[in-house]
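Render isochorismate synthase in 3D.
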Amino acid sequence: MTSALSPSSGLPGTRPAAAAVGTAPEAADPSPSGTLRGITVEWPAVPDTQGLLEYLVRDDVLCWVRREGGLAGFGEVARFTASGPDRFQQAAAWWRGLQSGADIENQVGGPGTGPVAFGSFAFSYTSAHQSRLVVPEVLVGLDGDRAWLTYLTYDGDAHLSAATAEAALAAWVEEISVERSPDPADSLVPGQVSEQAYMDAVAAGVERIQAGHLSKLVVARDVVANLSTPIATAQVLRELAARYTDCWTYSVDGLIGSTPEMLIKVENNVARARVLAGTLDRSRTQNHAGESDTDYAQRVLAGSEKQRHEHQIAIDSLTRKLEPFTTAMTSHSEPFVLELPNVWHLASDVSAELAQDGGQPPSSLELAEAVHPTAAVCGTPTEVAGALIRELEQMDRGPYAGPVGWTDSVGNGEWGIALRGAVVESPQQVRLYAGCGVVDGSDPQAELAETWAKFRPMIEALGLRR
């Protein structure tokens, strides 16, 4: 569905010679030859005003940004791709092998320092899409008042110091990508799933639910943006990050977006997740007299049996999958209303102390595999819903609704769900995805309208009109 992206352009092309690819369990060790060397140093030069947004200047940037903090990566020293049911295990094994002989001087320490791999994984094990890990050559990190710079290389003769790391970063950001202006010739057209086909799929899903085959199903569809001039990916990322500060803005190899949902975050042996289920379009409010928007959202979402039922299914799905890896778990007794520029969501935060099996807690990548897919993006029971999605949607979701994020060398990491996003398929074609949870009583027309609300962040960031 998508092709590999060239780090020199951020758009589909050939992989560079340095990239390493493995596509099957029996493939030889795909690590580049030589020893991975690197250095992580404190980096006081991060701008005070916009933080990491100042580094979203190239269309090929790798990023994970929230509230001006996070990670931004440039270049590429190694890459791994895989597909099929073992894609997570293959990626984890490759990542462990890459680090086993690495020589890294980490002067900072903490999550996100040292070698980091950005990744995105296909939603389905049946997908033809290649899941991937990409290790950047240069990484800028910002977490509150703590900022750092990492430089990695396979050059055995390279001198590793703060000065060489700074020079490597400067070389990458010296050439910034051009911006673009909206053009009347830009268009938004139906994708693989038409509006009518989507509503038919929702209606069919409701019938299966009423027949007792499952309790929830998530049905998705796509639309395609055809642009008159090449997409300005960095510009889109800055727009998303500035507008959706409570979301996690991501860019991995042409998969871009700003997700409100944290699948799993691991930091110092504690796992956290943010679960969303239940959506209300902010452009279609019908307030009672004297009722504030906040009170309206609370009444319609938290006061809705359908919305709370859908939300509880998502919470139960996550906690059930996470429980075997934990010693204690906590979550909100009542969901809260998350306010975003385009929609309101019912949300709950979950945290858990990780069990240490043999002294080593599970990594963020291992947990991402364990909890994916949640009911929030698939349905319940998961296996029944997954099979029905393949039957009714009639499209390959690719990386949409799959895990996207990063992992470091000691297992810390953040993996969101690739929502409110798009895949850059060519310089002038971008495919957007959106889906909705279907339960007993769901109305196809209402679910269709909800998909348009969820498309809105990307449509606006691309400068399009519906």
